[in-house]
Amino acid sequence: MGASMASRILSAGYTLIVYARTPEKAIWLQDLGAHLANSPADVARTSDVVFTMIGRPSDVRSVVLGNDGVLAGLKKGGVIVDTTSSCPVLAREIATAASARGCWAVDAPVSGGDIGARDGKLAIFAGGDDGVVNWLSPLFEIMGRATYVGKAGCGQSCKIANQITVGSNLVGLSEGLVFAGQAGLDLKRFVEAIQGGAAGSMVMELFGERMIERDFKAGGFAEYIVKDLGMGLDGVEDNVVVLPGAALAKQLFSGMVANGDGKLGIQGLITVTERINGK
């Protein structure tokens, strides 16, 4: 997703400097005109705005707060925008550290998968200073639609709630498809029939056909939604939130990981439902 987002910024005419922990992943962006840097700090030293899209909160901490991280190189007045699905507490820690350096931090995780990233139709959940979020609007509009959801950390909380909703939708879609298949229905006609009714959803639009066609290429890894759901189940700060549906979804996605499918896309959840039913 990060590469697709970066390519859209390039296509809009912005100068882009890229650091990738696996350099081979950035070669095609270099071919499009991006400049490659040797570290996150090097990116920050020559940039006004730095976007990060990584994997896990531990990666975010290293890339942003590490000795050679973004904040080590970001100039006064610069902005770090973390689009990773990460932890609200860490987002607030980054905002505090950025403020101490005279910089700004926005947590802006995204939803919409690889197709949304490619087409510039991501939903972006922005937390931080509302004036800074508004100032970033021209960049956000290249990637999708940003909604300001509150102070630092609120973007990450919104993404966790989003993943709870997406996970439950995928459980329902997987079970609906397996049931329809067992009942002898044509699966494409089944999806076409229910798409316009109450069962229709963006999850169905994004993943229904992929599930039917057995296209499990990852836009977002299954192992990452296990991480996201886990953050929700851990509660909000010291407040415990009882989420039985999210707990079930996490168990099912964990089943994907246990089956060796953690690097598949989240639409691969249907394989777990199929295994439970002996398919």
TrEMBL record:
Lineage, highest ranks first: Eukaryota, Viridiplantae, Streptophyta, Embryophyta, Tracheophyta
GO molecular function, one term: NADP binding
Domain 3-hydroxyisobutyrate dehydrogenase-like NAD-binding: 153-271
Residues of the active site: 159
This protein's name: 3-hydroxyisobutyrate dehydrogenase
Keywords: NAD, Oxidoreductase
Domain spans labelled 6-phosphogluconate dehydrogenase NADP-binding: 1-149
Pfam family, one: NAD_binding_11
